[in-house]
Amino acid sequence: MIIIKLSTKKQIQLxxxxxxxxxxxxxxxxxxxxxxxxxxxxxNTIIYIDPYLSDYVxxxxxxxxxxxxxxxxxxFLPSKIQKLDAVFCTHSHVDHMDPWTxxxxxxxxxxxxxxxxxxxxxxxxxxxxTVFLEPGKKVMVNDFIIEPISAAHYQLKDKQGRPxxxxxxxxxHNKTLFFWxxxxxxxxLIERLIQxxxxxxxxxxxxxxKLREQQGIVGNLKARELAExxxxxxxxxxxxxxxxxxxxxxxxxxxFNECIQLICPDQKSIILxxxxxxxx
Length: 280
Prior knowledge:
single chain; alpha/beta; 24% strand; globular; 280 residues; 7-stranded mixed β-sheet
């Protein structure tokens, strides 16, 4: 049950743009859905990544976490989605793998996630339409090549020793994108990432601290850590996320900008609001 009030006109306009706008060959558009959610659109393909389009986290019939109320409504309701090819989920946390989003989409699609995420998630989706991802094993969705990479949130494996959280390295023609999802730096990650040149690098900046960990909030990369990575890695444009959805799990975007200016002033960044897009 979703009770969030939406601007019907705006949600129809955005979803219509995602599903029906004509796109030239080899062009890629990235729409921001808030938190860590995105839509990748090309001429023939629509892929959702970590869409959280409900209020499952705070709702009494969902997770019922009173402290995790959305700062803004979703850009549209999942029940209105009519065109998509795939949903990719980085891990089982419900702001990334939301049952009220995935189960209310009224269109055929494949769900891509780790088997650990599938088992831990409240999402009920047919196994026949689910592709289990493994780190290092590439999958293709039309012209997209997606390579899952282990993410540490804080652990690399679940209690059964299986790969759990993932990041996605995505190649589309001559473009390379990286979607971190949730996680922190771990041994070997920088060595893996430095081998690539990224056109767009999407990563969390909400950070971590003892207070939030005591509240059961598993932390992420800090704003300064992402700026330091930008100095090391080959990143044309960095896009911070996971700071705008919940008041008690956030970071100042001004502070992130200060870190960039201090540590790597030549680094280009893009700050997106929910519903905005990047034309690549």
